[in-house]
Amino acid sequence: MTQLAQPPIDRARHARMLRSREWSMILLQLSPTGRIPAEGSPRRQVLNFVTEALSAEVLFPPVLEDLEILTPEVRAELLAIATEVVAPYEHESRRIGDPPDGLKERFRSLGIMDYARAAIPVPIVDDFEVAFLYYGPDEFLRVHVDNSYAFEFNLLGCLRRVRPETGRKSATYFLLDKGDICAYDMSEGQGVWFHSGMTPHGRTPLASGEEVVLVTFGFRKERFDSDSR
Ligand SMILES: [Fe+2]
Question: CA dihedral in degrees (167, 66, 87, 209; nearest 10)?
Fold first, then answer.
C-alpha cells in the first residue's frame, strides 16, 4: 500500500497545545459555576498559583476598547447571522454558533487581520477562527486557558448586551499575576483583546433577564519556538 506523504509535525506547537490543555484541566475544576473562588480558599490559592506560573509568558494584559469594525450596521448584520446559526445545545455551559460560509471573508474585507497585527506583538498566521457565543440566564464559563493549538490570542467582541435593571451583573474576567482580577462587562460594540492561551479567564453566571451575544476571533502565532514568545 502506498503511504501518503505526511506533513512534518510541528513539535513545538504540539507541546504547547498539550501544556495549555493540561493547565485547563486543572483550571476547569476550580470554578464549577463560573464564579471566581473566594479569596484565601484552597481553590483560589491554586488558581493564583497557576496564573502566576503562566504570567511570565503573557505578552500583553487584557485590553478593552471600542471596536472600529463593529459599527452599528455591522453589529446588526452579524446579529442576524448569529441568530440563525445558534446551536440548540450548550457547549461549556453556554451556547455556540458556527459561522456560515463567507463570514471569514467578510471579516477580512473589514480589515480584521490588520487589526489583529496591530494588537498582537508577535507575527501571526494569516488566518483566524471565528464563532458566536451566546449567554442567557444561569449560563456561564468556567475558568480555563484557550487551547494554543487552535489559537493563542483572542478578540471577544460584544454584539448584544441586555443588563438586568437591578442586582448583580455578569462579566468576563481575567486572572492577572499577584492575585489581581480584571473584569469587563462589555457594551455593544466594545471588545477585549487578550492573550487567551496564557491568561486564565471565565464568565460569571448571568442573572434572570440578562443576555450576551459575543463574536470571538482566534489568532495563532506564526512560530512556536522559544524565540517567538
Ligand atoms: Fe476561552
Answer: 20
